[in-house]
Design goal:
- A hairpin with a 6-residue loop joins strand 7 and strand 8.
- This protein is α+β, with helices and mostly antiparallel strands.
- The chain has two domains: 96 residues, Sandwich (Immunoglobulin-like), CATH 2.60.40; 276 residues, Metallo-dependent phosphatases (Purple Acid Phosphatase, chain A, domain 2, 4-Layer Sandwich), CATH 3.60.21.10.
- The chain is built from seven helices and 23 strands.
- The protein is globular.
- Helix 6 runs parallel beside helix 7.
- A seven-stranded mixed sheet has the order 12-13-14-15-19-16-20, with helices on one face.
- The structure holds fe (ii) ion (2 copies).
- The site of one fe (ii) ion has 6 residues, from loops.
Length: 445
Amino acid sequence: MHQMSRRSLLGASLAALATRTAAAQQPPPATLPATPPATPTIGGDDAAFQPNTLFLTWHRDPTTTMTVQWVGTAGETADTAVYYRDATRSLVGRLAPHALPLGSWETKATVARPYPTTDFKVFRAELAGLAPGTDYEFRIGKRSPVYRFRTMPARATDAIHFVTGGDCGVNAHAVANNVQAARQDPMFAVVGGDLGYDNGRSVEVSLAFIRNYSRHMVGRDGRLIPLVTCIGNHEVDGGYGKTREKAPFFYALFDGLYPDTGYATLDFGDYLSLVLLDTGHTSAIAGDQTDWLDRALRARRDHPNVMVVGHVPAYPSYRKAEGTGGKLGTGEGNRKHWVPLFDKYRVPVVLEHHDHTFKRSKPLLGGLADDDGVLYLGDGSWGRLRPPQSPDKLPYLAATSGDYHLTLHRLQGRERFHMALDENGRVMDVCRTGQRKSGAVRAGG
Ligand SMILES: [Fe+2]
Ligand SMILES: [Fe+2]
């Protein structure tokens, strides 16, 4: 990581933020409605179907796929198929209805599966073969409003921006952070564990988290912001070392990305790879997951932007890294099994959570500051807080704060910018990471 000119980046970032915020307060252009009008209903029934848990996620390449998902009850609407089409074309059609015929709707049937411990169902439709970097509109059956999404671009020609965080819960701070996150108009959001704190037991909490996300995580133009997650201890009844059945709500919603294990990769074309880890909740750190991580990082060693996401931090900012009384310290498994791989492949950024603070580490190699090291960012205070330790006391830390926050990432050319924002949109911290220095480490195997 480069300790860039903080003032210059802060100035630029604030200017960009101000522009964005100002734009967010502008009314949408009169000719392009922020939310397309609902499609007229069939059968004379005006009661539109609007599931309040509707959200988007991904199982595969976000440049050409999108998964539409909601939790509901069987029979609450007659037609649960997802109808979708290129929105650009239909918007042009609306503005000049005789100039271009509207595209026809394509249809994808949903699969309905049980939402554990309830009579609810998870309705899911994965749309594939989509055009990259394209606005789509979709509706559920013929009685829902028309919603919107945008596929990720095929190439990172323009800046790629997204938000990350963790440890949300369902309180007012979590909602405030959702609002701030949506105000950044991110292409997607990543929540690195401890979503609603359902603890694998509370269906109400699991649904409240999704309802909050569904309601607030909407971009400026009415576009739904896709959600990518990894598992945390509060998705699991018992927290650590359990089976998938002990994380029933998490896997009911996200087993498309995690069909067999608690870890997965999500590759965005050739420009971004998320490596999503299970820090010992339903998959052990050592053994299979570590072997897989080695292979996953090796296969992506030349990728420009590999970002690891996990829940429990390798370098904690609240809990103690050292074990006491025969108990392991926080992150000991990560440091023993994963950090050598992060170092070996020079993972540029590891996103960690769980400690409920803001933290930025120094760039680290083997736990020691090194200009060509790995940056650890976290520590999960989207909606939960603890007082962080001071960087003076922990030599691996560069900055901490005890405020609620999310991080806005911007991939721009060969650089990455990472800006922490508090729940009021105040810039708390800014840093930059550059490309891995080729030849600095032999990453073969
Ligand atoms: Fe947490
Ligand atoms: Fe946690």
